[in-house]
Amino acid sequence: MRTLSLNRRLISCSIGLVCALGAGLATAQDWPSKPIRIVSPYAAGGVGDTIFRILAPALEAKLGQRFVIDNKTGAAGNIGAQEVVRAAPDGYTFLMAPTANYAVNQHLFKLDFNPNTQLDPVVTIANAPLIAVVGSKVNASTLKQFAALAKAPGAKFNFGSPGAGSPTHLAGASFALSQANGMEHIAYRGTPPLTQALLAGDIQLAFPTLTPVVGQLKAGTLKAVAVMAAQRLSELPNVPTAAEAGFPDMLFGNWWTLAAPKGTDPKIMNRLHMEISTLLSEPAIVAKLLDIGHVPMGLSPAESVNFIRTESAQFKALIDRTGIRVD
Q1: Dist. CA 73–CA 39, nearest whole Å
Q2: Would you give per-residue pLDDT tens digits along the chain (327 residues)?
Q3: Does the N terminus or the C terminus of the chain have fewer Cβ atoms within 10 A?
Q4: Is residue 291 situated within a structural domain?
Q5: CB of 208 within 8 A of CB of 130?
Q6: Kind plus residue range of the DSSP H or E element containing 124
């Protein structure tokens, strides 16, 4: 009787396992069967929203379902990121977030989650290289010249950022540490007041992305002295790269990655990566991204994991060296 009972239990467990596996396969095969939620951890109308709205119409046409952007703001993007960490890994909730939420915040804040182990990257979509920008009244046309001015005896230069702990702050801190340790950091509440401070001469240097300052650069009220990337930007063809400017190790950008809750079916993630990376090769999509200062990337899930791991380690080392803290 015990043998018969055990056999029945084994058969029952086997049938349950087969059914579970079958259900999982059906989920991947039928995906998507309902609208897909994209959690954006920042305010509506921001860069992440703009990037995904460039992709959304074509993605919806390919997959036959709507993509709904859900803005969950607060705590430097940590609230939205945590919501996705806690979401069901069913392929219907994803996080669309930048550098800070994958590679920086865990080194600055006490988080209840680890983005590197509790989120699965699907695709790293695009990168906005940071640009070294100085005020028009600063007597420097290159980053080397600015460094020389900042090192001069009695020089009192400031650099600014749109918020403590942002990639812009970390880029400025890296420059100050290696070139002009006396420079003071001033944090502003967003990029518009940062730009105004540059224009007014309250700060002399900042490392924003292109979009917020492109008008001032064209008007000549601000000067771009280096693109902190390995390649020049097509919108700034005469501005040297970091290496060309003499700073080969200062590569900084604000990149955007789409990620899923840990445990999401790899078949779903690979499908979504394939569709998005295909779109990133289309000239019309590329042109729209370049217009907002973003260079398409299209990294696969595995490539994104390695990329984020490397970026995270580099930011942690920089934060440790500079002693940056946030309140």
Answers
A1: 9
A2: 444 444 454 445 455 544 444 444 446 789 999 999 999 999 999 999 999 999 999 999 999 999 999 999 999 999 999 999 999 999 999 999 999 999 999 999 999 999 999 999 999 999 999 999 999 999 999 999 999 999 888 888 999 999 999 999 999 999 999 887 779 999 998 899 999 999 999 999 999 999 999 999 999 999 999 999 999 999 999 999 999 999 999 999 999 999 999 999 999 999 999 999 999 999 999 999 999 999 999 999 999 999 999 999 999 999 999 999 886
A3: C
A4: yes
A5: yes
A6: strand 119-129
**For residues 163 and 189, is the Cβ–Cβ distance under 8 A?**
yes
Spatial distance between the Cα atoms of 162 and 155, rounded to a whole number of angstroms: 23
Among candidate residues 11, 64, 67, the one with its CA nearest the CA of residue 38 = 67
What domain range is 163 assigned to?
A: 131-227
**In-domain check, residue 49:** yes
Indicate which CATH number applies to the domain containing 217: 3.40.190.10
Residue 62 in domain: yes
pTM as predicted: 0.88
Q: What does the CA dihedral 151, 152, 157, 163 come to, rounded to 10 degrees?
A: 0
